[in-house]
């Protein structure tokens, strides 16, 4: 069966090609969205906020277009959040590099592994070597904590 629509202008339009094109676009956008979710997995769930449809039925052209537009908006939102997270991680890595090069200029600064995008609970911390004596003498070092605290 061929789906044909007669527009007000009197022209006959084949909706099958339009539906197929919209379905291909939606499939491509869903694949991109799932790839972004997989690549950003350990940093928490990402909600693209794509509205669902009301039960099983064949979507009209308008519903397909709305679904596509919602996917585009959700994909843009997820990309911007991933870019912002990447910028924060790059800034934390730059701070860690400066801490390692000059610990005396970053006294008591802490950078967590999760801020760097690394797994685990470790925290990089600038602290004085030999406690109070090291603090008075200006002996500073960067230490990485041993990891996650023990479960109580």
Please describe what this structure looks like.
- With 152 residues, the chain is α+β, with helices and mostly antiparallel strands.
- It has 2 domains: 1-88, no CATH class; 102-152, no CATH class.
- It has 4 helices and 5 strands; from the N terminus they run ββααβαβαβ.
- A 3-stranded antiparallel sheet has the order 3-4-5. The protein has a two-stranded antiparallel sheet with strand order 1-2.
- Strand 1 and strand 2 (12-14) form a beta hairpin.
- Helix 1 runs parallel beside helix 2.
- It is rod-shaped and about 90 Å long.
Task: Describe how the helices and strands are arranged.
Blueprint: E1 4-6, E2 12-14, H1 15-39, H2 61-101, E3 110-112, H3 113-116, E4 123-128, H4 131-137, E5 140-144
Antiparallel strand pairs: 1-2, 3-4, 4-5
Q: Key features?
A:
152 residues; alpha+beta; 2 domains; three-stranded antiparallel beta sheet; two-stranded antiparallel sheet; 4 helices; 5 strands; rod-shaped
How many domains comprise the coordinates?
2
* End-to-end separation: 67 Å
Largest sheet: 3 strands, antiparallel
Proportion of residues in helical segments: 40-55%
Structural class: alpha+beta
Please state the average pLDDT score: 82
Q: Indicate the low-confidence ranges by residue numbers.
A: none
How are strands sequenced across the largest beta sheet? 3-4-5
Radius of gyration, rounded?
27 Å
Q: What overall geometry do the principal axes of the alpha carbons give?
A: rod-shaped
